[in-house]
Amino acid sequence: xxxxxxxxxxxxxxxxxxxxxxxxxxxxxxxxxxxxxxxxxxxxxxxxxxxxxxxxxxxxxxxxxxxxxxxxxxxxxxxxxxxxxxxxxxxxxxxxxxxxxxxxxxxxxxxxxxxxxxxxxxxxxxxxxxxxxxxxxxxxxxxxxxxxxxxxxxxxxxxxxxxxxxxxxxxxxxxxxxxxxxxxxxxxxxxxxxxxxxxxxxxxxxxxxxxxxxxxxxxxxxxxxxxxxxxxxxxxxxxxxxxxxxxxxxxxxxxxxxxxxxxxxxxxxxxxxxxxxxxxxxxxxxxxxxxxxxxxxxxxxxxxxxxxxxxxxxxxxxxxxxxxxxxxxxxxxxxxxxxxxxxxxxxxxxxxxxxxxxxxxxxxxxxxxxxxxxxxxxxxxxxxxxxxxxxx
Length: 392
Ligand SMILES: Cc1cc2nc3c(=O)[nH]c(=O)nc-3n(C[C@H](O)[C@H](O)[C@H](O)COP(=O)(O)OP(=O)(O)OC[C@H]3O[C@@H](n4cnc5c(N)ncnc54)[C@H](O)[C@@H]3O)c2cc1C
What we know:
This protein is of the alpha+beta class. 48% of the residues lie in helices and 15% in strands. It has 13 helices and ten strands. The strands form three sheets. Strands 1-4-5-8 form a four-stranded mixed sheet. It has a four-stranded antiparallel sheet with strand order 2-3-7-6, with no helix packed on it. It is globular, with a radius of gyration of 21 Å. The mean pLDDT is 97. Flavin-adenine dinucleotide (FAD) binds next to strand 1, strand 3, helix 12 and helix 13. Residues 128-131, 136-137, 161-163, 212, 217, 366, 369-373, 375-376, 379, 392 line the site of flavin-adenine dinucleotide.
């Protein structure tokens, strides 16, 4: 298959890229399409990433991580997205990479000692329980309640779209501890926990969905679910702020994943355009095939530069909210266009499972919706970068 020249980078990042590529090459389209078809979690791939020591790429060294930046983690996630595993492969490891940042930043020494090493070596797996059916993107409206009773909290509520809940033994859970009407701001009164998911009071139901079938997305019901007070992250009532801390790196990593996915789809499209002969010539000789593919290459390259820029701002401690959001926006659009054009370049074969483009396409759709939609990103950029009134 065609492989485009990589965007120039530092020697260290080029090494990361090469190592991850070699690891991912062990898991080809046949492996991933079977996992997708059978709805089976890719344990072998997850283990290979953990065994390579990659889960701790951006985690502190004192807990077994490598202490590298978001820029390096983005290189890694882009390469995973560019592999045959596409979004499923990214989602297999995504939360281990940066999902526990709130613990790194706001947890106690004891919590970090107890929780981070097992996430880094892959012996523990966490999922992320924020979204609820009735709250949507307005997180302040979540209804899951955690009521303090002595040395524990008792939780009641329902989460939706909790990815990997079937595989995880831990959940980063956001719940309301003070009623919204008693808070100065709607986002006050929310508390973050890191709790055992394999416990009484938890029921998990998988959601039937369009793609990324190897990685489950679930409804999780909490009914008198008890969380010891030692499992609270930071102070009661500050959970929303802690989540915000990890939002920018998450946008950046997500953008990197999508760019990788877009590149792979485009590479397959270009290969096909170079091979397929119709009307006595390669279809890639037609400008109506060439130009859209060239547009996709340019869009992906531009999105990658923006993603790298946002990552470097973050790593150097500078504000990067608008850039991280713009990177996510550009990447999701560029990735989607690349997948769409590749599918059409394949003609009818784009629709056939054997060529894998339809699998990439089904997975790519999710990146337009989650973890944040393009509309909400544009609302944010309009407000923060353009100074327009807040619209949501
Ligand atoms: C594959 C997948 C995996 C996920 N994994 C997780 C996970 O692990 N943990 C987790 O907690 N969540 C997860 N999510 C949930 C995801 O973060 C939410 O779906 C996402 O935040 C959007 O929320 P919603 O679906 O409720 O959309 P809604 O909030 O209902 O919005 C619906 C539409 O309306 C638009 N909209 C809403 N308000 C406005 C406005 N004011 N202005 C303009 N447009 C607006 C939105 O952009 C969107 O297009 C996942 C979702 C998917 C699809």
